Amino acid sequence: MRDEDRDADKGNRLDDTRVIPTGCGYDCGGRCLLKAYVKDGVITKVETDDGEEPQLRACLRGRTLRQNIYSPARLRFPLKRVGERGEGKFERISWDEALDTVSNQLNRVKEIYGPSAIFYIGYTGAIGYLHNPGTVQRLLNMFGGCTTAWGDSSAGGARSASMASYGTVATANTREDILNSRLIILWGWNPASTVFGTNTTYYLVKAREAGSKIVCVDPMFSNSVATFADEWIPIIPGTDTAMLIAMAYVIAKDNLQDQKFLDNYTVGFDKYSDYLRGVEDGVPKTPAWAESITGVPAATIENLAREYATTKPAALFPGWAPGRTAYGEQYHRAAITLAAMTGNVGIHGGNAAGYGLGYTGISLEGGMPTGENPVESMVLPTATGALETRPHAGLHRARMWDAIVGEEYQGYHRDIKMLYVVAANPLNQSPNLNKGVRALEKLEFIVVHEQFMTATARFADILLPVNTIWERNDIAIPWSFQEVCFIHVSKVVDSLYESKSDFEICVELARRLGLQNYSDKTEDEWLKDIWRSLYGKPDYDTFKKQGICRMEFPEPYVSFREQIEDSKQHPFPTPSGKIEIYSQLYAALNDPLLPPIPKYIETWESRNDSLAVKYPLQLLTARSKRRAHSCYENIPWLQELESQTLWINPRDASSKQITNGGEVRVFNERGQMVLPAYVTEDIMPGVVQINEGAWYQPDEHGVDRGGCANVLTKDTYSPGGAFPFNTCLVQVERV
Ligand SMILES: Nc1nc2c(c(=O)[nH]1)N[C@H]1C(S)=C(S)[C@@H](COP(=O)(O)OP(=O)(O)OC[C@H]3O[C@@H](n4cnc5c(=O)[nH]c(N)nc54)[C@H](O)[C@@H]3O)O[C@H]1N2
Ligand SMILES: Nc1nc2c(c(=O)[nH]1)N[C@H]1C(S)=C(S)[C@@H](COP(=O)(O)OP(=O)(O)OC[C@H]3O[C@@H](n4cnc5c(=O)[nH]c(N)nc54)[C@H](O)[C@@H]3O)O[C@H]1N2
Ligand SMILES: [Mo]
């Protein structure tokens, strides 16, 4: 019997201490099991899964949740701004005053300017089925709608490419299927630090033990390279597409492709093959061609191509970070095409190399319905937006500051007057923060629901204190349900201070705004309903008591298996019913920068850009194991683990007299920051790295002292929708 079941059987009691099975729930890609020990209403200890493998064992972040909940920095009361916008001077007010002000402002702005003047920004701070930004989206939709932004900052490129090639973003296999792979390529993917489902690393360890070969392609000698790799291939950032294309060239030249698979399940290989041979542009996409672009030796490219084509089955895992670049969608399209060329789609041990969250044929959507947004339904989606899984208005999230500042683009111009921020930290996590500050200064009213005084919260006019995951009940699921389980994230203690959940806040606002239909259910009743429509077995109360419910599969689930086994009955959901190496959806857009077959297009701010004379280093912003984006940044235990630094190769450091631990200034035309250098061979020359998510702390000269990479990144997007966070040139100098 698993421990949590035993605890549940005993009524969760140990003397006068209750042990409550609950979960972890920030947006890191994992969802883990935690056991909270509670005595006299206070959490005294936190443990995690210690049952049978594969466990849902929490990492260091989950284990610090007690410090998070009891942090002295928690926002305790509703606050009203008294100083200048952004100055951080606030005064405590009552909930009544706060909610009256917010509802009056909503009414005022809607009456004078119309509902599109209200800009809603909800993101990934809260990811439960009930407690998530959808609570506010529902409220605003009922109120008359609001402006929203489209764009997936995680994987816009993967999403667009997956839709173009497969007609869906649900392309994953269950993680245990890794054990069936003989060759595993982690391409710009670092699951040892960057969580993608709790047990990805568990299965990678098992696969290695069973003798599978693991290759990593990454500009950084990451923790995954250190832990798993038989071979590390460093590559110049932003050039991955060229290497993938050259691999396709080698496979086609040596006739190693799975021609039967290509004939039966794909369209467009002939056109791709013309491109590979240089029929169109006179440039054969040889390994030598790719070497000059990627810095990867031609022989290495050739070997990997042959190995991938001849080792069966093989799983190519294209991480999202190389796609978080200019033209990032081409990288994902090229990876998908390689998987199709080698027949590694729809089989055990392969991987479709698509977006990779969710399985074809299984939907686990659920939650409180947000309803129609009357503002958005008046706007036609843009062409690229039509490839998104949801239709959207014309505003891309990467360009939100321009939309507020009022610069017109793409025919999109709304007079935005009010910002409603929930479960997001845009003045930290969006690109080009200095422009962000100017945008926020211009607005008439800003309301933020937050737990902490983040950079965004400092700009609020009304700041509402929100409770944390252990002060409310919810249901959560790991990304892609790769662990194939639901977790009941149970309430452990009452809401601290005067904090409330976003749902409770919305219920009270709805009453003030006269929106009777907002909710006729309690939290518990909503969760019961959600559970029933989501999975429903066992009944909700049993599930809640157990804390966890694993979905049962007779064997590892493989996406597209039905399409491969019986393509007549199960066509791919694309216009042709096949995997589209030549994408009709892209072709219809008629955009040379979004070609119908995967092509290498050199990024802006590449090493060859004229800007590289002034700003010669390529900046990457990967995940830190001590944060989930900007969450957990202020937790003392985690701060001890790793300091925020600029990773720089000794070759680049020595030419600038930069020493390990010494302060450096990192800058470009968009902004600057000062932070310590970490001089290390773990990053290739010409590339520097700052972990994303550190808190933006500009000094009086506007120089960031917190190490927040987004003072440097560019606020634009790729034609297929990718956020190009990893396309950014900078210069570094010793301070
Ligand atoms: N440079 C760079 N920037 C990036 C990225 C990158 O790779 N490089 N990655 C991008 C990616 S992939 C993502 S997903 C985004 C994440 O962007 P965001 O979702 O904006 O970032 P978070 O840090 O998760 O911010 C969430 C905020 O929600 C708050 N919060 C937590 N729980 C609740 C709750 O229940 N209610 C409310 N109201 N608030 C809550 C937290 O305190 C936190 O301040 O960042 C993007 N930014
Ligand atoms: N600990 C932790 N885990 C997380 C999160 C978190 O905040 N903290 N956030 C979650 C979220 S919301 C997301 S979207 C995912 C994101 O997950 P990823 O996008 O996979 O994560 P990153 O850590 O940004 O990058 C992974 C690796 O890609 C490499 N890389 C960067 N640019 C390039 C390139 O141009 N080419 C190649 N070949 N490699 C490159 C980096 O060096 C790094 O080793 O992570 C999730 N997991
Ligand atoms: Mo993300």
Could you characterize what this model shows?
The termini are far apart. The chain has 735 residues and is of the alpha/beta class. α12 packs across α13. Residues 1-11 have low confidence and may be disordered. The longest helix has 19 residues, at 95-113. The chain contains 24 helices and 25 strands. One ligand MGD binds at residues 27, 123-126, 131, 153-154, 324, 422-426, 429, 449-452, 454, 466, 502, 621, 629-631, 692, 709-710, 713, 725.
Q: Give the amount of beta strand, in percent.
A: 15-25%
Mean pLDDT comes to 93
Question: Would you count the extended β strands for me?
Answer: 25
| Widest β-sheet, arrangement of strands | 6-5-15-14-13-7
The whole-angstrom Rg is 25 Å
Report low-confidence residues grouped into runs of 5 or more. Answer: 1-11
Name the helicity range: 25-40%
Separate helix tally: 24
| Bound ions, cofactors and other small molecules, one mention each | ligand MGD, molybdenum atom
- How many angstroms does the end-to-end distance come to? 59 Å
